[in-house]
Design brief:
The chain has about 500 residues and is of the alpha/beta class. The protein is built from 15 helices and 24 strands.
């Protein structure tokens, strides 16, 4: 079909490619800050089939800040303790309680919710904000960057070509990202020598519909498992050899047997089946000028450990406030560079090694069988349970090498206990009168600068439980950014140091 040119040239502050969980999270994060966006999605509607099922505590905190966590919790199943149920032995082979991180997050556990339901909740949320337009059946084609904008070209389902100017373009367009391909970049890393198959089934009877989960069974060819993602709805998972063609892998001949082994005998309805390669790969960089990548477009990880979608949504939340500040006169270069530095290293040294280790473990049935008792024993230790809980909850992310992270490393670059993720906050810990005056003067100056978010002040006394969680000391002053990370921290800072550091940590342009 021949392309037609649409006459209208429109403008938007931020153009997002892809209405997957990451693109919609970015739109929600921008809307929280009063910034408009347009999302282009080539599909005609949200995908009704789901890949991800597990939503981590950190992601729930982010969703909470958009006012969407309540609905997610209502729709999904929140487990405060994960009992890995060994079907062959009819008992839990591993118990992982999140009680140890209950003082660190309002969501000490893991939410099982289908990705498609999560996407629908995000979509409804961004549309209700009135600040986001989602254009389904619109495919991004190309862009050209000028000194002050990005000119984006896309086509609709009638092949009508439109050109629109945006201040920023963000590719949240998945593993085969067209935005990244225009950079000539591939995702570097490894592909595992097996594939994962998924099958969603509906099991009508109340007994099998409410069995404990996750359920696993070790077979000679690998691990098979089942997770309940909605009442009576189960996801059956297993591995397939890479030599098989997709058709061979998707032949569901052995499905009745598998369902019977994992859930018990009885009727079931097959809803969907898919087979996926698994990778651990990352782009060399997430930024080129005014164009950025987030989510699977920037990094892809194995589903083991359930962190791919979560880390992509955390990319989006990290980027949202930075784009908002850049659009409102902030130091664009430092804000966007910091996004690349922070989220590239979070994926490269956090998510990818963890999910790769988890996959190697899950893909070797003998190793898995041998290691399970040792792991179960290790998890009796409170310390190890806490470490494992923080890892699964994705609470331990730390930004070391970032041009926006300043001051005392003990606090700066870590997620801040007690942060609201709604605004920037200066936390002050039992400070002297003089420091208090400096803080008040600095924040009222910032108020006059009309930041996208006002900077609020929070005093923490020694009796406050947060004192311990921060491992605070008297006269500690710390700036918590809108994404809940500590951007700057110092003990007994001078007035001049405070003024400069808070501005730099928030990416505000500072006269040299
Ligand atoms: C089997 C499996 C299980 C998984 N389980 C988990 C889990 O439990 N927890 C977890 O955190 N992660 C999990 N993941 C990973 C998770 O599914 C992905 O990380 C997540 O979907 C990435 O979201 P995204 O928005 O970046 O990309 P996608 O979900 O791929 O969305 C990209 C969107 O961009 C659109 N698009 C692409 N090109 C264009 C274009 N040119 N123009 C317009 N639109 C375009 C696509 O249509 C799509 O809607 C799993 C993955 C697999 C394969």
């Amino acid at each position: 079909m021949q392309e037609q040119l649409s006459g209208s040239i429109e403008k938007t502050p931020v153009m997002i490619v892809g209405a997957g969980p990451v693109g919609l999270t970015l739109a929600a994060s921008l809307a929280k800050q009063g910034i408009r966006s347009i999302v282009l999605e080539k599909k005609t509607k949200i995908d009704e089939h789901s890949r991800a099922l597990a939503v981590a505590a950190r992601t729930l905190e982010i969703l909470h800040s958009y006012g969407l966590a309540g609905e997610c919790m209502k729709e999904g199943t929140f487990l405060r303790q994960i009992d890995l149920h060994d079907v062959s032995r009819g008992k839990a082979a591993l118990r992982m309680s999140f009680a140890e991180i209950a003082s660190e997050t309002a969501y000490p556990g893991m939410l099982f919710l289908s990705q498609s339901r999560l996407e629908s909740i995000l979509l409804d949320g961004v549309l209700a904000s009135g600040l986001c337009e989602v254009r389904f059946a619109h495919q991004f084609v190309s862009y050209e960057e000028t000194s002050s904008s990005v000119v984006v070209t896309f086509i609709d389902s009638h092949n009508v070509k439109t050109t629109m100017t945006a201040s920023f373009l963000v590719g949240c367009d998945g593993a085969h990202s067209s935005v990244r391909q225009l950079w000539g970049q591939v995702l570097e890393g490894i592909t595992f020598p097996v594939r994962v198959f998924l099958c969603d089934v509906k099991v009508p009877d109340p007994f099998r519909g409410t069995l404990p989960f996750p359920r696993v069974q070790l077979t000679r060819s690998g691990l098979v498992g089942a997770i309940r993602y909605e009442p009576f709805h189960w996801r059956i998972m297993g591995t397939r050899p890479v030599e098989e063609t997709e058709e061979e892998a998707l032949i569901s001949d052995n499905l009745p047997d598998l369902v019977a082994r994992l859930l018990g005998p009885g009727p079931f309805e097959q809803l969907w089946m898919g087979v996926f390669s698994i990778h651990s790969r990352i782009a060399a960089g997430f930024r080129r000028g005014r164009v950025l990548l987030a989510g699977d477009a920037a990094h892809i990880s194995s589903p083991a450990g359930g962190q791919g979608m979560n880390s992509g949504m955390q990319d989006a939340d990290n980027l949202g406030w930075k784009l908002a500040f850049a659009l409102q006169g902030g130091d664009m270069e430092r804000l966007l560079d910091s996004y690349n530095q922070e989220r590239h290293s979070a994926a490269l040294s956090g998510v990818l090694p963890f999910t790769t280790r988890a996959s190697r473990f899950a893909l070797r049935p003998r190793l898995f069988r041998m290691a399970l008792p040792a792991l179960a024993l290790a998890l009796r230790s409170r310390k190890l349970r806490r470490a494992a809980g923080r890892r699964l909850a994705m609470l331990g992310t730390r930004y070391n090498k970032s041009c926006l992270i300043l001051g005392e490393k003990k606090w700066a670059g870590r997620s801040a206990p007690g942060a609201t993720l709604l605004t920037s906050t200066v936390f002050i810990f039992d400070v002297s009168e003089k420091i208090l005056q400096n803080v008040e003067q600095t924040t009222s100056e910032l108020d006059r600068e009309r930041l996208p978010f006002p900077v609020t002040v929070r005093r923490i006394e020694k009796t406050d439980p947060l004192w311990r969680r921060w491992q605070a000391r008297p006269n500690l002053v710390a700036l918590v950014r809108p994404d809940g990370f500590t951007g700057w921290a110092a003990l007994a800072p001078s007035a001049a140091e405070m003024r400069l550091a808070i501005r730099r940590a928030l990416g505000i342009l500072v006269a040299q």
